[in-house]
Amino acid sequence: QVQLAESGGGLVQAGESLKLSCLASGKTWTIGVMAWYRQTPGKERELVARITRGGVPREFGDFVKGRFTIRRDNTKNTVDLQMNNLTPEDTAVYSCYAQDQGVDYWGQGTQITVST
Length: 116
What we know:
Helices cover 0% and strands 59% of the residues. It is an all-beta fold and 116 residues long.
């Protein structure tokens, strides 16, 4: 069993930056890929960024456009998402994802609201 806990969400103004953190606990030693997703009302959940266990970013959403960076620290069981130059279109619930031996795990999600 894996538990994921997100932190770092909140209210920011357009153009500002924010860092999200995801802490994995439980059976963490075999976790493979981890990722950040987001979802807004009226839209399907979409991938923000994905990273391998070895720390290699694999994918970014088309909307990222170089603004976001995903990092992973397996000694701390964390994956962070640094988001720069935020826009109101980035407003969403951001959720941490992890896969462990074929099983998907999700965090509760954290709200990010970007004001104009």
